Amino acid sequence: MQVVAALVERVQHASLQREDMGWLKQQMPNGFGPVFAIWMRDPAAARALPSKLKLFQHATSLGGVESLIEWRRMSDFDVDERLLRISVGIEDWRDLKADLLAGMKALLEEGVQGVQEIQGGEAEVPLR
Fold first, then answer.
1. Cofactors per UniProt (predicted)?
2. Tens of pLDDT along the chain (128 residues)?
3. Is residue 6 a contact partner of residue 49, using CB atoms and an 8 Å limit?
């Protein structure tokens, strides 16, 4: 997933915690929720990614049946401009994964402002 590594700095989800989260597992015995956050390496990529997606709607709402992505900085200037919040709906996870990957590939192919610096000035990044 070189495309993801080139664009995404970190992912935050309840299932990815390093600390002992036994209390959280007790509250969520059927698994963790479908909401997570990603921090892109570059603000331009965070701002542009939602418009590259076909299955995710760019909206603020959590826990619905449709998959949503939100560039949080659009509505809250106090948050990191690299932050994207994602709420996974009822669509097939493989389709959603493919949509995110295609959107990220499009960012690299189009050379979104700032993405060339992320790639370390490389002319080409393998798109896998």
1. pyridoxal 5'-phosphate
2. 689 999 999 988 766 666 666 665 666 556 666 788 999 999 999 999 999 999 999 887 766 789 999 998 887 788 899 999 999 999 999 999 999 999 999 999 998 755 554 444 443 333 33
3. no
Whether residue 35 contacts residue 63, with contact meaning beta carbons closer than 8 Å, is answered with: yes
The structural domains of the chain, with segments of one domain joined by +, span 2-117
Tell me how long the chain is: 128
Cα-Cα end-to-end distance for the chain: 6
- Which two tokens mark 81? 């401009």
What CATH number has the domain spanning 2-117?
A: 3.90.1150.10
Strand partners for 70? 85
**Contact residues for 81 (Cβ-Cβ < 8 A; gap 6+):** 43, 46, 47, 73
Alpha helices in the chain (DSSP H): 2-7, 22-27, 43-52, 93-110, 115-118
**What single letter denotes the amino acid at residue 53?**
L
